[in-house]
Amino acid sequence: MASNQLIERWVRPEIRAISAYHVQSSSGLIKLDAMENPYGWPQAMRDEWAELLRRTDVNRYPDPHADALREQIRQVAGIPEGMELLLGNGSDEIIQIIAMALAGPDRVLLSVEPSFVMYRMIAGFCGMRYEGVTLGADFALDLDAMLAAIETHQPAVTFLAYPNNPTGNLFKRDALMRIIEASPGLVVIDEAYEPFADDSFMDLLGEYPNLVVMRTFSKLGLAGLRLGYLAGPPAWLNEFDKVRLPYNINVLTQITTSLALRHHAELDQQTAAIRSERERLMRELAVIDGVSASPSAANFILARLPAGQAKTIHAGMKEQGVLVKNLDGSHPSLADCLRLTVGTPEENAAMLAALRSCLS
Ligand SMILES: *Cc1c(COP(=O)(O)O)cnc(C)c1O
Fold it and tell me: Beta strands 186-190 and 211-216: pairing type?
């Protein structure tokens, strides 16, 4: 039997229907498409890291619970007393762990649209039904529509990115609270961009039996290490821990993140630089004719271009060596939109120059 016949027979139809997540090639380009921190580490930190690696054995399995690292994260992130902490190979893995633990026929994973695409994809992988409620004007939550969807679908879990990706905005805090209160299932506040925002739900942990907070080190500068975490009531996290593969956080990630957290001041400084560049970019974009930028509490800016030009401008910018993300076509409310990751001042200048020249 030819392999495509075997695939038709055995691979689940919902998997066959998914188009693989596409990552565009970036070699030789200024990379402003994936919300990475553009700054590397200072030489002294690199030397310390190299020394640490020299003394690290890789013939043994890692600490399955990464206890030392978890304790350090508790301190740095201010995890409230009495709350549990679970680590994932990126927060993507945590979304998968939650979905695996909650999946079942007719179980619903609820989110908003447009938002982080992995919610929908992972729901599909795990055989959950996905429902997405369209955001309102200015990408604000449509609270009535959310409450109606919660009533109708009784979601097992609701994911809300705060700030939202790819729109960059923070939803209204009281709207989120209403959603948490109205939800029969778990509500995950995804704070992937928390370092760039001035608000968090971390301090509300423990006040609601169905609230957990998820974060990642990726946008903070450690995307290559793959480390995310979930904080929340021990009863929930103990269940999720059963689904987690035993050695999901490898030795190199454990020791390297631990080193990075000992130098947290360095990462904080980089974050501050990115935040101030974001404000400068907003001011620069505001005076470009035909471009309108959405307010952002993240390390990227959603920019709307004159109608019908996103594809050409995206390609033109790439031609000039600058890679950003074209969102046109991914959702009706993202028509004509590009997502611009905030880079170094030099990278941002090159990005703006490319954008200006493609517009004229
Ligand atoms: C980037 C991102 C994540 C995933 O990050 P990891 O690299 O897997 O930790 C999760 N949620 C949102 C909203 C993101 O933008």
Answer: parallel
CB 96 within 8 A of CB 126: yes
Name the 3-class secondary structure at 355: helix
Ligand 1 pocket, residue 111 CB under 6 Å = no
CA nearest to 88, candidates 252, 249, 256: 249
Bridge partner residues of 112 (DSSP): 133
CB atoms within 10 A of CB 36: 17
Tens digit of each residue's pLDDT (9 = 90 or more) over 171-181: 999 999 999 99
pTM over 0.70: yes
Please name the residue whose Cα sits nearest to atom 5 of ligand 1: 91
Q: Cis bond leading into 114, ω under 30°?
A: yes
Whether residue 228 has its Cβ less than 6 Å from ligand 1: yes
Q: Does residue 190 line the site of ligand 1, with CB under 6 A?
A: yes
pLDDT in tens, 267-285: 999 999 999 999 999 999 9
127 exposure class (CB count in 10 Å sphere: 0-12, 13-18, 19+): middle
